[in-house]
Automatic annotation (TrEMBL):
UniProt xrefs under Pfam families: OsmC (PF02566)
Protein's organism: Methylobacter tundripaludum (strain ATCC BAA-1195 / DSM 17260 / SV96)
Protein name as annotated: OsmC family protein
Gene3D superfamilies: 2.20.25.10, 3.30.300.20
InterPro entries given in the database record: KH_dom-like_a/b (IPR015946), OsmC/Ohr_fam (IPR003718), OsmC/Ohrsf (IPR036102)
Amino acid sequence: MQVTVKWVDGVMFVGETGSGHAVVMDGPPDHGGRNIGMRPMEMLLLGVGGCSSFDVVQILQKGRNNIVNCVTEVTAERVDAIPSVFSKIHLHFIVTGHDLKASAVERAVKLSAEKYCSASIMLSKVVEITHDFEVIEV
């Protein structure tokens, strides 16, 4: 896996992936940015949320659960020092479906957290990561 990050101007960069996708990263005006892109640390949280969400949906679908939506809200706390690393990350899964059992969603979240999600497992070595979920019946 390889990515390239190219400086554009000020504190704006364009990240390009080996799979052919690009994203703009920028900082706030008080750091020399124009606020026209995501912050790198936000992208890190998106990666954790995306990786975990992918696992949860795949596990539930393979278990023949009838899901219609999965939203993962990721919140984080950072230390008040430089570097301002994450001290806590919390993933809250909101899974919507027909006849979903909470035990199936709980199992999927646990499997992602403990076995499959490379991003959260890697980060959990240095950051406290917690998970919870809710099930919405349609």
